[in-house]
Each structure stands twice: as C-alpha cells, then as structure tokens.
Amino acid sequence: SHIPVDHKDNTLTFHNYRSDVLLYNAMRRPKVIKKGTRLGYLLCCSTFQHPRMFYSSHYRLHGTTRCTGMNPAFSNSIIKDDFHIGSSALSNNNSTCTNRFILYSADKLSSSKKVYNSTVTQHLNLLVQNVQNDEHKRDLLALLRQFSNIFDTTRHNVANTPIPHVINTIPHSPPASRPYPQPDKEEIMYQFIQEFLQAGLISESNSPYAAPAMLIKKKDNSYRFVVDYKRLNAITIKDSFPLPNMEDTIFKLGKGFSYFSKFDLKSGFYQIPINEADKMKTAFITPFGLYQFNVLPMGLRNSPPTFQKVMTDTLKSCRSFCLVYLDDIIVFSESFSDHLYHLRCVFSALHDKNLLLNPPKCELAVQRINYLGHTISKDSITPMKDKIEAILRIPEPHTLAQANRFLGSLGWYRKFLPKFADVAAPIHAVTNLTKPNRKNFKWETAQSKAFHQLKHMLITEPLFLHFPVDKSPLILTTDASDTGLGGVLQQTVELLSS
After folding, report:
1. What is the pLDDT along the chain (498 residues), one digit of tens a residue?
2. Which molecular-function annotations from GO does this UniProt entry contain (predicted)?
3. Is 180 helix (H, G, I), strand (E, B) or coil?
C-alpha cells in the first residue's frame, strides 16, 4: 500500500513556488495516488551554494510562509500519505528560495530503521501525549517513528565509538579481594549475574584482579548491583577530561529559547565499550565465580570522564543547540520548526553511534523543563520544587556530618537566597573545622535559628532568577562584613509592550 520515493538525491530547491520530486511505483500493478495522500517530510536546513533539483513527475507546491518556518503547507495541492509535508518552503518576498530542503521518506526508513513492537509504540505515544498542538504532535510522532530504533529498550547495545574506556595504572600488583558475604541476597546476586551474562555485559574471567561485588537496596526496595573498585581506583591514573560546569550549562539555556527536549540514555555506562586489554582489570568476585565487564561499569575512577568524552564526541555537530552532562541531554530551540530539525540531528547522531535512549525519562518539545535540579523556561530559572521539598524534610542536625550535608544540599540554590552567607554564618562557624578540632562541633541556639531561617527563605516568594538580557548593561553591587560577603548582579531593562 506504500509508494516509495526515491531520495538518493534528496536535496530540493524551489523556483517560482515549484520543485520536482522523483516518485516510482515498486508494485507490479498501477497505483492510484488520491488527493490528500501523505508522502513525506520536507525539512528546511541551512543555506548552501549549489542546490540540486529532481526532475520527474510534477506537483505544484504553493506556500505563503518564510523558509525558516516549519508549519504545514501545500496541503491542498500536494499528494500525501506515506509522506507528510512538515515545512513551508517558500518565501513571500522572492520566487526563489535559497535554503536547502531535505526530503525523506517515512516508507523507505520503515524498512531500515523503524522498530515495530508494542513496547516501543507505547513509549513513542507517551512521549507526545502532552503536546497540545495537533500538528506539532503529528510531526513529532512521525520523527520518533523514523528513529524508533533508538527508543527500543528491549535490546542491549554497545556504542559504535572510537573512544573505549582505558584503565591506565601505576606499577602495581593486581589487587584481589574475597567476596563480600551476603548470604540472604545470594539468589538475587545470581539472577543479576545471569542477566548480565545473557546481555553480554560481562564474561567469565581468569583475571588476577578481583574486586568484591555487592547488592545495595534502593528506596523502592529493589537492589542495585555494585562493585567495590576502591583498590583498583587507588592505582588508576586520573583522566583529566573535564565535566561541564553545571552553572555554565544552566546559563547557556537562558538565551530566550522557547522549546526544550530532554533525553536520558538507557543504562548509559553499560553502552560504552572497554579497551580489550583492560577488561581483566574490571574483574569482580562473587560466591559463584569470577567475572569481568565487557562494558563500562559504574564505580571506576574514570568512568564519568570517559562517558562525557563519548557523549561530547557523539553530539559535537549539535553543540549549538544541544548540551550534554553525562547521560543527561537537553536540546533547545527558538521555534518549533527549529526544534524539529534539531531533534532530527540529535537522533541521527545517536543512531550513528548505536546509542539507546530511555523513553520513560525523556521529555519532548516543552516550554518549561526540569534540568540539573532547576526549572528552566524562556524567561527565568527556579529551583525544582521536589528538590526544595527534599531539603525541607531534612531534620535538624546533631552531628558535624549532618550539618555539612544540610549545607551541601543548599549549594546549588544559594544564588536564590538573599544574604545567604550572613544567615548561614553560624552554621559555617561550627562546620569549617580542621580535622583535630572536629570533635569540638556544637549545635546551639544560633545554629538552630539559622537552620530554620534558611528553610524559610527557600519557601519565600519570589524564588527565581531572570536570565540576563543581551546588550543591556550589567550593574554589580557588592558588600562585605566580618561574617560574609555578597553581591547582586542587576540590569535596567526597558520593558516592551506586547
């Protein structure tokens, strides 16, 4: 029932509101294309110098919006079905459009890229269920279906990356430990091992290395499989590849973007390969034998830098509209048309590297999004509500460790709290202790008052920051006292009437 479209040369240009597309009938019998049949997608890309055109069956395309748009057009004149036109192609002001357009066939891609199973279909439908605009929803769902293989959580993938994890060590004797005794969890441990073996994540090992494996109970009463690589990490040379600065990442999102999408990789570390010669160093011991990882495990000293390196390399062509912090990917755009194209670029990059996403933790084409502990919109940034609620549930400290944990929980949000340093000074006074003096920790009335005042500040409106306005002057005001210092960065902005 499908009519394939030949898109070997899939770059289109328009002249006098017209472009030509080569169609062919793969059936042995004539096929009638009815008016209103959806044929494909037309995406507006960046301008280039040497456009090429198709010549064959002629269909006049009428458009009224500018090339930068992605609104549906040509609905009355072009035949549609397997193809849907998702971008207006022509300018009001000029009969020749110099932008590049990519035409791709949903039908052709279905045979090579689409994954059809009920789980994937359900995931894709859930991803667009909150999109209110019907046209946006249709375009997003079609794009997701095109790249449905990267949302297939029923399989395990190892990334096709030139950056395997390498474990460089100082001269040493291989550290070997005995298995940790967890007799009440042995059956659960055995199930983990069998699942890992079946998925190809681990292999049986004859390595001289042996790190102890254990199970840690999670909040939902399930278990997390972990390996204690403390002794291996002690002899591992540090990888200095930098992780992104979270504050800089948040700031980059404050440039007036209207659409955001967020993606999380499925068991991200387990998709990264390990250098063959270093696999034996990951060996871990259990009551059932010795095994080693074929993929990157959590707990290794340089696991985060390697993962960041792989993701930075994978998405380097998307850096102008995509940021990645470990396995948290965010895509941001000024318009929906741009966003659809940006998503396609990101999906294509992930597909090329054979990386899988975790659909339940993804969010598509929203105008307000939670990312790295903050809620971000076009105009402002605020702390995430559930993060604030978690801080409010922290009981009053009675030990140095508890006091430090409380201050640490406020670290990312102190920029929202006026005079934070002054208010928190009594707590800092009893926590900034040298090691010999830590036994002198005390929690008295002053510390208790500061504790409750800081919590109150977290629920006092307004608790948000506006993003700076480009080209408006910045005014920095500072002050200091014996107990703290602080500053306020302000702008005088002329408000424009709508």
Report:
1. 344 444 444 566 666 667 766 665 545 567 677 766 666 656 555 444 333 333 333 333 333 333 333 333 333 333 333 333 333 333 344 444 444 455 544 444 443 345 557 788 888 999 999 888 999 999 999 999 999 999 998 888 899 999 999 999 999 999 999 999 888 899 999 999 999 999 999 999 999 999 999 999 888 889 999 999 999 999 999 999 998 888 788 878 877 899 999 999 998 999 999 999 999 999 999 999 999 999 999 999 999 999 999 999 999 999 999 999 988 899 999 999 999 999 999 999 999 999 999 999 999 999 998 888 888 888 777 888 888 888 889 999 999 999 999 998 888 788 778 888 889 999 988 888 777 777 788 899 999 999 999 988 888 766 555 556 666 788 888 888 776 777 777 777 665 433
2. endonuclease activity; peptidase activity; RNA-directed DNA polymerase activity
3. coil
What strands, in cross-sheet order, belong to the sheet with 465-466?
Answer: 368-371, 374-377, 380-383, 465-466
Collapse the DSSP code of 371 into the 3-class scheme (helix H, G, I; strand E, B; otherwise coil) and give the result: strand
pTM for this prediction: 0.67
Any idea which architecture 183-378 has in CATH?
2-Layer Sandwich (3.30)
Q: Is 231 helix (H, G, I), strand (E, B) or coil?
A: helix
Amino acid code (one letter) for 257: F
d(CA 405, CA 399): 10
Report the run of H or E that residue 141 belongs to, with start and end. helix 134-146
184, burial (CB in 10 Å: exposed 0-12, middle 13-18, buried 19+): exposed
| CATH 3.30.70.270 boundaries in the chain | 183-378
> In what helix (H) or strand (E) does residue 386 lie, and over which residues does it extend?
helix 385-392
Concatenated DSSP letters of 312-367 = HHHTGGGTTTEEEETTEEEEEESSHHHHHHHHHHHHHHHHHTT--B-GGG-EEEES
**CA-based R_g, the chain, Å:** 28
Report how far apart, in Å, the C-alpha atoms of 220 and of each of 158, 216, 263, 264 are.
28, 11, 23, 20
With residue 381 as reference, give the H or E element that holds it.
Answer: strand 380-383
From 329, 405, 406, 320, select the one nearest 372 (Cα to Cα): 329
435 secondary structure, DSSP code: G
Q: How far apart are CA 155 and CA 357, in angstroms?
A: 11
* Structural contact between residues 152 and 356, judged by C-beta atoms closer than 8 angstroms: yes
Residue 444 DSSP symbol: -
